[in-house]
Design brief:
543 residues; 4 helices; four-stranded antiparallel beta sheet; 4 domains; mainly beta; 5% helix; elongated
Length: 543
């Protein structure tokens, strides 16, 4: 018998892996750069260039980009900067991966240390974490009706299919469907200007841009993106040659075309900064004050939409034998689209040997969530915030210095209706939430001569899902009624309702329609309770 079916598409993790890569290399200082006297500030970023797939393995090619700000020694004493890269190529085993699969690879710089070997040679040591995964769209077909007749409510009688009487049960099925799953790019072109209060730019010693507070909003046939980037530069002044710095917060916005996008969808989007370019040009007065910033945000987009349908949950025969074939499928629906904000404050006390800060030049931070756990009606996140600061010391001959600290945090939020899923099926646990943490409004200030106060806001967007395994009706097979089985059933019976019984279960046991049981027993609803007595009349005994 042919069933009417509706296809639902959901994303699922097919394979995933995690690999830590140690990198270590000695770097020679270019002949055009002065000798290194003291390291001041460093920055690293992982860039994935290419991913190739094979059978049960992938190859990831990329590089570690690094920047170094240092204090020169000798006749060229002052501040100087240099940059470079460390390439890597790794083979990673991933079970069930095929050559045509598309791999998403998250990369994290877990640690980077730069040390002086001598004034012309530096040692760069780093640990990179690669987390590749393959996601696939899985089709689940739910039964919405039987092709040979228009589904009716039970109060309108028993459906008749090809001369056979069937009893069916329907239920409301809520689900979450993946409407969009693709990779895209947002190109950002913004500019800033060094104000007249600061000297014009001579040459750049350091340039960096950090993207924060990114927000994604699905609209009709497009995804709207807003955010903010922090531009920071250390430069020599155009006329005096003295070292100065400039920092600016630059808001940005843009749209990415997306045909299937609709307002109200859930955005599960991750991003990474790809191409990054910072240029300096002259303004209308001929002074080097205009700064152009070009970025490419590489987006991994998933847009989810909520749906619901009346589905055929079960079928049995009144005048025939019915065998139902079901398939165990994972059904996901939205429990809550969580947005969490939590302010944090932390004080760092300088050690005795550290120069005291006179002025803060720049501060940045990296947020890491190390654990997300569930208990009854609660969600808890644990992690650390790695903060650091570049400051100018007022002590004679001291110059620029760096201060770093690690801030642990623990956040708990109450969410009604969550069951304790710890220790449950691993596959289900990986699909019950999507985690998108950010750190916003970071600010470092001098509390006194010995302490730095850090302030910021932890932001977490976490769509939380109810994920269940359900038996979905796939096929119905109709056969002749087993006359011997029917003969063994009594023509009349008094049935005492037990705990957990339903009219559906009773009717299925005695080959009687639910509607007939209700008519004979003068029931106005399907509600029954333990201890009730029901008169059961076999089909054909009373018409």
């Amino acid at each position: 018998m042919e069933l009417m079916k509706k296809s639902i598409y959901t994303d699922k993790i097919k394979a995933k892996a995690m690999l830590q890569i140690p990198l270590e290399e000695d770097i020679n200082v270019s002949d055009t750069r002065p000798d290194v006297g003291r390291l001041v500030f460093t920055r690293g970023k992982v860039k994935i260039d290419e991913i190739k797939t094979g059978t049960n393995k992938i190859w990831v090619k990329g590089k570690l980009l690094f920047q170094i700000l240092y204090e020169a020694e000798g006749k060229d004493s002052g501040m100087a900067g240099m940059e470079g890269e460390l390439p890597f190529m790794e083979e990673i085993y991933m079970d069930r991966v095929e050559s045509q699969d598309r791999v998403i690879c998250e990369s994290t710089l877990e640690d980077m240390r730069v040390n002086m070997i001598n004034s012309r040679k530096l040692s760069v040591q780093a640990v990179i974490a690669l987390k590749p995964r393959v996601e696939e769209l899985v089709e689940t077909k739910i039964c919405t009706g039987i092709a040979d007749y228009q589904m009716q409510t039970q109060t309108k009688g028993i459906p008749n299919v090809e001369g056979e009487q069937l009893e069916y049960r329907r239920k409301q099925q809520e689900y979450l469907e993946t409407a969009v799953c693709k990779r895209d790019l947002l190109r950002i072109h913004e500019e800033s200007r060094v104000g007249s209060a600061l000297p014009a730019i001579g040459s750049l010693l350091w340039k960096s841009v950090d993207v924060t507070q990114v927000d994604f909003k699905p609209l009709e046939e497009k995804l709207a993106i807003t955010g903010e980037m922090t531009l920071f530069m250390v430069y020599t002044e155009e006329l005096s040659g003295k070292v100065n710095w400039f920092e600016a917060a630059i808001p940005f916005s843009g749209n990415v075309e997306c045909q299937s996008s609709r307002e109200g969808m859930i955005a599960d989007v991750s991003y990474d900064v790809g191409h990054e370019e910072i240029t300096v040009r002259e303004d209308a007065d001929g002074e080097a004050r205009m700064i152009g910033v070009e970025l490419a945000l590489e987006l991994e987009m998933k847009l989810l939409c909520k749906g619901e349908a009346q589905v055929v949950a079960d079928v049995y025969g009144v005048s025939c034998e019915v065998d139902t074939i079901t398939q165990r499928s994972i059904m996901r629906k939205l429990h809550q689209d969580m947005y969490v904000e939590e302010k944090f404050t932390h004080n760092t006390r300088l050690e005795e040997a550290q120069p005291r800060p006179l002025q803060i030049c720049h501060s940045d931070a990296r947020l890491e969530i190390e654990d997300c756990s569930f208990s009854e009606d609660e969600v808890t996140w644990k992690g650390t915030i790695q903060v650091r600061m570049l400051y100018l010391s007022g002590e004679e001959g001291s110059g620029f210095h760096t201060l770093e600290d690690s801030v642990p945090f623990r956040l708990t939020r109450q969410v009604l209706g969550i069951q304790d899923i710890q220790g449950s099926d691993t596959e289900l646990m990986t699909q019950c939430y999507a985690l998108q943490p950010q750190l916003a409004q970071l600010h470092a200030s001098l509390k006194d001569g010995n302490q730095i106060e850090w302030r910021g806001v932890i932001q977490i967007h976490m769509p939380l899902y109810d994920v269940n395994q359900e038996d979905i009706l796939q096929e119905i097979q109709i056969g002749e009624l087993d006359s011997q089985k029917l003969e063994k059933l009594p023509g009349f019976a008094i049935y005492f309702v037990k705990k957990g019984d339903t009219l559906w279960q009773i009717g299925k046991k005695y080959y009687v329609s639910v509607e007939k049981i209700k008519v004979i027993n003068q029931l106005t609803s399907d509600e029954i309770k333990p201890g009730d007595r029901l008169l059961i009349v076999k089909a054909g005994e009373i018409e």
